[in-house]
Write a structure and sequence with these properties.
By secondary structure, the protein is of the alpha/beta class. It is built from 28 helices and 16 strands. Bound molecules: (S)-3-Hydroxyhexanoyl-CoA (3H9).
Length: 678
């Protein structure tokens, strides 16, 4: 029998000191908390009656890692850090066991790696997400993990930065066991085992690879990540640190890791990514009281994922409606989709099932889960099925009269406390609210295409939308794992209003003779996944023209290139021609191909409008476009449409592919002094 399987005698139980991490809400290992923890560890080490130490968490998790707030200013000279706590564990002759429940992230996982054994509950989640903050694991993670699971697997784990389940962590060898029942009992049993420091092991590359493969694995890793100057700085440094784990003795590797970490903490990309981290956490804090905790003060953190939204209705079975329904089903909320058009319903049914089957093929869902999710979406033409829904999202054709009619109908059918939401991207929420007897429970929920994938949700507050309704919307966003951003009820809300100006600025440059291909290339170089013209082609030039017309006369450009393209049925990717050409043989018809005919059209229209050609440098092109975004962002802040610059940044990072290592347009402008073009 393995010593740890023997029944625990009470004498052994008494000899194990349990240290519980307790720093709400997420047991962050701040300097102040580390000082306390270190004192507790020293006391346990000095106590002869204590033979082993179990470290566990409270508040439903082990630890979220270092306190990110501590990185925002210079480290105080006497600060106690996770590294000091880990050094004390490392130096002790007593056995340490980490008993892991819930999230065990960043410095929290590194702390557990300094222990001799790790046991976890089945629902634990383990990860080293530092890369997402533009950092690397800086408390020994880059040195211990390659020694524990091999450099190749460690690199993959740390470069991804996402957390894994306890089951996967066990497979990888990060934890020793999943506790079948009482976690602490299992941890105490493990504490009977011998001392076994990871730091004393030799790093390996992988079980199936000899040490000679190290240079190859390292070179491959460098090739796979983005260039240093374009979002890859932390990744390259992380790979350097792992290389040190393979090549150098442990203490030298640790010194290297610390140096690299300290460089990254001060780097521009990390500052920007940390801004995004904090901005995300501000989103639901609404001055005037709409945050969840203010509206529902009696509910504790753990109760956030409460009941309350047990059924959702979606009106409209088009692309948007189907995507929204999938998003809810993925969050475990039953949905009913209502549409009067049988053909649309059949198509939506196929889209939804096709999506779930695709996820099965990709190994993301089991057959059974896919079937269950499919079953949680009901399709019907009977509006009465919406009567017991808690939230109903309207996703019909973008036309005010059509939507008004839908809201009148919904108000009559939905239960009195139900929330009615519109997925409009431009229309007036108040006009829809006025059609109902519950304007306090009407708002906009603006999903982005594809709604089941895009992580952004604009929550649009009408004049009478109540704080409770807004709070419920934020709660819903959280359940959908989307970033909910509050927007005022103004044309295009935040994201589309700004993108409109950005696209206009791109057109203005094209009128001055800069080719669409060059403008797109400059913005891609900056880090956007595509440039403004390819983006317009993707969303459809007919859509763009309709939005331009809806925006009013001040939005009409100096030339009518857009109108001419639409007239010529060049509607974008869907017609294989727009600002660019597309060819099925090139990138499956999605790769924009430069089209001299469009460049000529710009030149011709510019001549007619008396616009002289001008030379621009790449930097000027970039600044012109970013400047347009920022100028509109500032206006939206002034008008109160957006609450904070950080909210705008989140909209752009999560909704429009703004490179997160530049922090979002408002952050970038504030730190890079972009000339603002009104
Ligand atoms: C690190 O560890 C570096 C080391 O390698 C090296 C050191 C030398 N720090 O997200 P929530 C706050 S880097 C400070 O709404 P959830 C958060 O701001 C760290 N604060 O909850 C919020 O505050 P408020 C690597 C933190 O249940 C509150 O906690 N670790 C931290 O949806 C609740 O957060 C990470 O990157 C933190 N580390 O999700 C993990 N974490 O209530 C980052 C949270 O005032 N954290 N807060 O708004 C997370 O991923 C999620 O917060 C977590 C909980 C999954 C833990």
């Amino acid at each position: 029998m393995n010593p740890s399987d023997a029944p625990l005698d009470s004498a052994w139980g008494d000899a194990v000191r349990v240290l519980t991490l307790d720093n709400p809400p997420v047991n962050a290992l701040s300097f102040a908390y580390c000082a306390k923890l270190l004192a507790e560890l020293h006391a346990a080490h000095a106590d002869d009656a204590v033979q082993a130490i179990v470290i566990t968490g409270s508040h439903g998790l082990f630890s979220a890692g270092a306190d990110v707030n501590d990185f925002q200013s210079e480290m105080p000279p006497n600060a106690v850090t996770i590294r000091d706590v880990i050094a004390a564990i490392e130096a002790s002759v007593k056995v340490h066991v980490a008993a892991i429940e819930g999230n065990c992230l960043g410095g929290g996982l590194e702390l557990s790696l300094a222990c001799d054994y790790r046991a976890a509950t089945a629902d634990a989640k383990l990860g080293l997400p530092e890369i997402r903050l533009g950092l690397l694991p800086g408390a020994g993670g880059t040195q211990r993990l390659p020694r524990l699971i091999g450099a190749r697997a460690a690199l993959e784990f740390m470069l991804k930065g996402s957390s894994v389940s306890a089951e996967r962590a066990l497979e990888l060898g990060i934890i020793d066991e999943i506790a079948p029942s009482d976690l602490l009992e299992r941890a105490k049993a493990l504490a009977k085992g011998p001392k076994r420091r990871i730091s004393e092991r030799q790093a390996i590359i992988a079980k199936d690879l000899p040490m000679q493969a190290a240079p190859y694995v390292v070179a491959q890793a460098h090739k796979m990540v983005p260039p240093e100057a374009n979002g890859g700085l932390a990744a390259h440094k992380l790979i350097d640190a792992v290389q040190a784990a393979v090549e150098l003795p442990f203490s030298f590797g640790i010194a290297r890791e610390s140096r690299l970490f300290d460089e990254l903490v001060r780097s521009e990309p990390s500052l920007a990514l940390r801004h995004v981290f904090f901005a995300e956490r501000e989103l639901s804090k609404i001055p005037g009281g709409s945050s969840f905790d203010e509206v529902y003060p009696e509910r504790s953190r753990g109760a956030r994922d409460d009941k309350g939204i047990e059924k959702v209705g979606v009106v409209g079975a088009g692309t948007m409606g189907s995507g929204i329904a999938i998003a809810f089903a993925q969050a475990g909320i039953p949905v009913v989709i209502v549409d009067n058009n049988d053909e649309a319903v059949d198509k939506a049914r196929q889209t939804v099932m096709g999506m779930f089957m695709y996820q099965v093929q990709m190994g993301r869902l089991t057959q059974e889960e896919a079937w269950k999710r499919g079953q949680s979406i009901q399709f019907t033409d009977d509006w009465k099925e919406l009567a017991d829904a808690d939230v109903i999202v309207e996703a019909v054709f973008e036309n005010l009269d059509v939507k008004r009619e839908v809201f009148r109908k919904l108000d009559a059918i939905a239960k009195p406390q139900a929330i009615l939401a519109s997925n409009t991207s431009t229309l007036d929420i108040d006009a829809l609210a006025r059609e109902t007897k519950r304007p306090d429970r009407v708002l906009g929920l603006h999903f982005f295409v594809p709604a089941n994938i895009m992580p952004l949700l604009e929550i649009v507050r009408g004049t009478e939308t109540s704080p409770e309704t807004i709070a419920t919307a934020f709660r819903l966003a959280k359940k959908l794992r989307k970033k909910g951003v509050l927007s005022g009820n103004a044309f295009g809300f935040i994201g589309n209003r700004m993108i409109f100006d950005y696209v206009q600025a791109a057109n203005a440059l094209a009128e001055e003779g800069v080719t669409p291909a060059r403008i797109d290339a400059v913005m891609k170089e900056f880090g956007f996944p595509m440039g403004p013209f390819a983006m317009s082609d993707l969303s459809g030039l007919d859509v763009g023209l309709a939005v331009q017309k809806a925006a009013g006369p001040q939005a009409i450009g100096r030339t009518n290139v857009l109108e001419r393209l639409v007239e010529a049925k060049r509607l974008g990717q869907k017609t294989m021609a727009g600002y660019f050409k597309y060819d099925k043989a090139v990138g499956k018809g999605r790769e924009p191909i430069r089209d001299p005919a469009v460049e000529e059209m710009f030149a011709e229209e510019a001549r007619k409008a008396g616009i002289a050609p001008r030379e621009y440098s790449d930097d000027e092109i970039r600044d012109r476009l970013l400047g347009a975004l920022v100028a509109r962002g500032e206006k939206l802040l002034e008008e109160g449409v957006a609450l904070r610059p950080g909210d705008i940044d989140i909209v752009y990072v999560y909704g429009y592919g703004f490179p997160p290592h530049h922090g979002g347009p408002m952050w970038y402008a504030a730190h890079q002094r972009v000339p603002v073009h009104a």
